[in-house]
Amino acid sequence: AQSVTQPDIHITVSEGASLELRCNYSYGATPYLFWYVQSPGQGLQLLLKYFSGDTLVQGIKGFEAEFKRSQSSFNLRKPSVHWSDAAEYFCAVGPIGGGNKLVFGAGTILRVKS
Amino acid sequence: EAGVAQSPRYKIIEKRQSVAFWCNPISGHATLYWYQQILGQGPKLLIQFQNNGVVDDSQLPKDRFSAERLKGVDSTLKIQPAKLEDSAVYLCASSLDPGATYEQYFGPGTRLTVT
């Protein structure tokens, strides 16, 4: 069955430090992969997506992610974290089923300390 | 461009009561999604509409949940009767077309507490 695992429930980093959030997926074919961010009281916002081609994708807010087929991973990175990056981050995989839906991971809460 | 609108933002009800949530998608978006997000979990798709037809409702608890999208625009999600385990944030999203290649735009959600 298709699934997404985000191994880290919480991560705390210092402002200005680098960040890597892990995402592993289970999918029978070449997946479409997404990272969304959710700030408190807000809906989800798309950070970046991978469909095909270059395995390193750039997104908004200075984020990037690398698709590694051999490791079934799609980790999110940022070289220098800002306090405003504190939020919850969700990895998602699709398309699944006739409606081409997405399956989301459980999320990783990022805390940024000054 | 206005985003996805949802109301109410918060709702507290007692178990066995009924509740309804409303969603207005981005203008021109044919596909509308309702997700349930339980605390500590990622969003789970409840139902997906393409215009006013249902594409996927495989995870909708149909004995208590219902949804409609009249005229292919606004949508309502209803729970009757509510159970304690229905406490969650209900997110509405829309996209231009069905398919994972099309970005889903999310509303702010309705936080439901069932006591």
Describe the fold and architecture:
The complex is a heterodimer of chains A (114) and B (115). Chain A is an all-beta fold and 114 residues long. Helices cover 0% and strands 54% of the residues of chain A. Chain A contains no helices and twelve strands. In chain A, strand 10 (87-96) and strand 11 (101-104) form a beta hairpin. Chain A starts with a strand and ends with a strand. The model of chain A has no long low-confidence stretch (mean pLDDT 93). Chain B has 115 residues and is mostly beta strands. Chain B is 0% helix and 48% strand. Chain B is built from no helices and eleven strands. The interface between A and B is medium-sized, with 27 and 26 residues.
The low-confidence runs of chain B, each spanning 5 or more residues with pLDDT under 50, are none
Oligomeric description of these chains: heterodimer
Q: Sheet with the most strands of chain A?
A: 6 strands, mixed
CATH superfamily grouping of chain A? Immunoglobulins
The assigned CATH architecture of chain B is: Sandwich
Mean pLDDT over all positions of chain A: 93
What does the largest sheet of chain B look like? 7 strands, mixed
Tell me the CATH topology of chain B: Immunoglobulin-like
- Number of helical segments of chain A? 0
Largest interface pair: A-B, 27 and 26 residues
Strand content of chain A: over 45%
Q: What is the ordering of alpha helices and beta strands of chain B?
A: EEEEEEEEEEE
Structural class of chain B: mainly beta
Strand content of chain B is over 45%
Briefly, what CATH class of chain B? Mainly Beta
Helix content of chain B: under 10%
